[in-house]
Write a structure and sequence with these properties.
six-stranded mixed beta sheet, two-stranded antiparallel ribbon, 16 helices, alpha+beta, Cytochrome p450, iron, 507 residues, monooxygenase activity, Cytochrome_P450_Monoox, monooxygenase, globular, oxidoreductase activity, acting on paired donors, with incorporation or reduction of molecular oxygen
């Protein structure tokens, strides 16, 4: 009996050390050093993710707890939290954000899906020379000159899906539009009729990536397992749900590989001569075949597959949630909706949106910028781990610590924006200085520095088209049956519940 008692005490002591003492002591020492420049927000096991989830539960707003803490302590630049048993440093101050973005090679992204052979070779997760090569290769394809050829396709996708969808689920409706645009941008005509799991490809992929994210957030067992075992988590004592996800991911890989190999065979015999007409897959396969011929293989078929999943994940949900949130605010503020509808009618009338009128949608753009300022779906970056001991300003980060860059933290401070917590899209129409005390890292909608979002201009283009065409066709209304709106997480920050707005066809 005594032996059992001693064993229990030892186990409890180890758990106490692992869960509380190991992460908390370094945080307390940092707090003593930094004083009111730092705020401690410790949450056993779940850490900063627990802070977000608790904020949703108590405030109906994922960022409310942190935003209130920062506004109540204007000198605060850092949130001191944890990630399981590791200290987690959350940068809010612009000088910390600037250095950490610029010195990105000192930090390693943590794979949000923890799935082997899924998106590790894509642009988002690549590091070092591989990342530089991919970025250099893809960057020309994301210029306005290249993207403008997709405008007719984007118009058509919005019109078609708006007609077919029942529009009862805002986030699904938006994801269907943005997902189809990504599939057609990557695969072109090859993607027409492309199905996965008996569904349209973008529907199946959106559902799959969403389920993977929710497993990690909603299931304590899966969450802790992922922290301990990384990509091996899916094969170590997997639940029935995890086994199902692994099976479905493998099926997706098989189907995507078939599509890619099909295009390889087509372009071997009939290469596309006009680069301006190439979709992303054509660019990649053409380069793949060229390198193979020259015996200088850098791109392989696995990278092409990972790149599609990366672009789909990054381009579908983020743009969809931007658009969904814009539509919510249009429903909430009918006067803004009337002003923007007036602009849409004046600029495009009954015509499609094209390269000549796209940038004349000034108020539509202002609406999007205000949503990105106040309700950015990517409110923090993918969190990182510190590769080696690193000095950032006055903080010595230790190898293995977690790092979160809260690039939206300054957007809610009155020191940088007038009436910062007020939704006011007209601030972006002003000719006066909009951002106060700006060092270039105050308003950074989709990250900054060398690893800024390569698809930002495409996302902005899509969002303008989606909002303009939908507001022209439908009156956007708040659903009177919904009593409580919340800003939660489906990987990205989004407005919920999914039936929060209604679409009434204009006469």
């Amino acid at each position: 009996m005594l032996t059992l008692f001693i064993a229990i005490v030892i186990v409890l002591s180890l758990a106490l050390f692992f869960i509380f003492i190991q992460p908390l002591v370094p945080l307390l020492l940092l707090k003593l050093k930094l004083g009111d420049k730092a705020i401690i927000m410790f949450y056993p096991i779940f850490g900063f993710i627990g802070i977000f989830m608790r904020s949703i539960k108590t405030n109906q707003d994922v960022m409310k707890s942190i935003n209130v803490a920062l506004r109540n302590n204007p000198r605060a630049k850092i949130i001191l939290s944890n990630f399981l048993n590791k200290p987690c440093i959350m940068f809010a101050g612009t000088e910390y954000l600037k250095q950490s973005y610029q010195d990105h090679d000192d930090f390693e992204k943590l794979d949000p899906f923890m799935l082997p052979s899924f998106m590790q070779k894509g642009l988002a997760m690549s590091e070092g020379e591989n990342w530089k090569r991919q970025r250099k290769f893809l960057a020309p394809a994301f210029t306005f000159e290249k993207l403008k050829s997709r405008l007719p396709m984007m118009n058509q996708v919005v019109e078609d899906i708006a007609e077919k969808d029942d529009k009862t689920n805002l986030n699904d409706f938006m994801s269907r539009i943005t997902g189809e645009i990504i599939v057609k941008s990557f695969f072109g005509k090859l993607g027409e009729g492309f199905q996965l799991e008996g569904k349209e490809a973008w529907v199946a992929l959106t559902k799959l990536t969403g389920e993977i994210s929710l497993i990690m957030m909603d299931n304590l067992y899966a969450f802790v397992k992922s922290l301990l075992f990384g990509v091996k988590t899916w094969t170590i004592l997997p639940t029935k749900q995890e086994k199902d996800v692994v099976r479905r991911v493998e099926n997706v890989r098989i189907k995507l590989n078939e599509l890619i190999l099909n295009r390889v065979e087509q372009l071997k015999d009939s290469p596309v001569q006009d680069q301006d007409k190439m979709v992303f897959l054509d660019l990649y396969v053409t380069e793949y075949l060229k390198q193979k011929k020259q015996n200088e293989q850098q791109i392989d078929l696995e990278e092409i597959l990972h790149q599609f999943i990366t672009l789909f994940f990054a381009g579908t949900d983020s743009t969809a949630t931007i658009c969904g949130t814009c539509l919510y605010y249009l429903a909430k503020y009918p006067e803004i909706q009337s002003e923007i509808l007036e602009e849409v009618n004046e600029v495009i009338g009954n015509a499609d949106i094209n390269e000549d009128n796209l940038n004349k949608l000034i108020k539509v753009n202002a609406l999007i910028q205000e949503v990105l300022r106040l309700r950015n779906p990517a409110f923090v970056t993918l969190f990182r781990t510190v590769k080696r001991d690193k000095q950032v300003q006055d903080i010595k980060l230790k190898k293995g610590w977690a790092l979160v860059q809260m690039h939206n933290a300054n957007s809610i401070l009155d020191s940088h924006f007038d009436n910062a917590t007020e939704f006011n899209y007209k601030r972006w129409l002003s000719k006066d200085t909009i951002i106060k005390n700006d060092n270039g890292y105050i308003y950074i909608p989709l990250t900054a520095g060398p690893r800024n979002c390569i698809g930002y201009h495409m996302a902005l283009m899509e969002a303008k088209i989606i909002i303009a065409l939908l507001i022209r066709k439908y009156k956007i209304l708040l659903n009177p049956a919904v009593q409580q709106i919340r800003f939660g997480i489906k990987f990205f920050q989004c407005v919920e519940p999914d039936n929060c707005v209604l679409f009434e066809k204009r006469i």
